[in-house]
Specification:
By secondary structure, this protein is mainly beta. The chain is built from four helices and 17 strands. It is globular.
Length: 253
């Protein structure tokens, strides 16, 4: 969570919160992280690969973090017709490039599976398809990215997984040439974007797993062209293990 305590002499930053009900969370997996009405939220589901299949679907399945109030259940209208007491478990939730939400619900015990979509999580869901959910995981094009993120994407190749206080969830962006690449070793570049508000500078950056990246910034005056420059993170100590991220194109068959 962002840390913006006015009395903090260190200034704004990031705060970590401990979840008191960790025994409950430990039984399930986190299927999605997103914002709902500006509240950071986590959706839990029963992962049958890791847990005892006799475990019921989580009855408290969407949790929100409210500063000062801690973690609590969130009522998501889009999921109202899929109550956990009827055996429904929400296993996947994606915000698609078309700004709609797509999700899959499974009725445990082999009793059914459904695909749904909604224009907003505050609205009721409607029937969708497996293909639509798979397409929702496709990256957005650079044209869908705000400036200067759009210009930063043009300076690099591959796919950027971008987080932002202005995005409802993690978003992926890729150039058209990357979308046509069927290789399974495409790197995902972690990215960040902040619009800066009315009077602030918009900032965007992407960085490769090797620590090389680009950062872009626009001036406060409207219409200022973004300034894009390369940067490199300092090398990690030799004892640290380094991992690379790999993006696997969804199977659209």
């Amino acid at each position: 969570m962002p840390w913006t305590d006015a009395g903090d002499t260190v200034g704004p930053g990031i705060a970590l919160y401990r979840i008191d009900s960790h025994d409950y969370w430990q039984q399930y997996s986190v299927g999605s992280l997103f914002f709902f009405d500006d509240t950071p939220a986590a959706m839990l589901y029963r992962n049958d690969f890791f847990t005892d299949s006799k475990l019921p679907p989580p009855s408290l399945r969407v949790w929100g973090l409210r500063p000062g109030a801690g973690m609590g259940e969130l009522d998501i209208p889009a999921f109202a017709d899929l109550p956990p007491e009827d055996g429904w478990d929400l296993e996947d939730l994606q915000e698609g490039p078309d700004e709609r939400w797509y999700y899959r619900a499974v009725k445990k015990g082999g009793r059914g599976i459904g695909y749904f979509r909604t224009a907003a999580l505050s609205l009721a869901g409607e029937s969708s398809s497996q293909g639509a959910l798979q397409n929702a995981s496709q990256p957005r094009t650079p044209e869908q990215a705000p400036s200067p993120l759009r210009q930063v994407l043009a300076a690099c190749t591959g796919i950027a997984g971008v987080v932002s206080p202005e995005f409802a969830s993690l978003r992926y962006y890729a150039a058209a040439s990357t979308m046509k690449d069927s290789r399974e070793d495409l790197q995902i570049y972690p990215g960040y974007y902040h619009g800066g508000g009315v009077d602030g500078d918009a900032v965007a950056l992407v960085v490769s797993p090797a620590g090389q990246g680009f950062i872009g910034q626009t001036g406060k005056a409207a219409g200022d062209a973004p300034v894009i420059r390369p940067f490199a993170l300092p090398p990690l100590p030799p004892a640290w293990l380094q991992y690379e991220w790999t993006w696997y194109p969804p199977n659209l068959a």
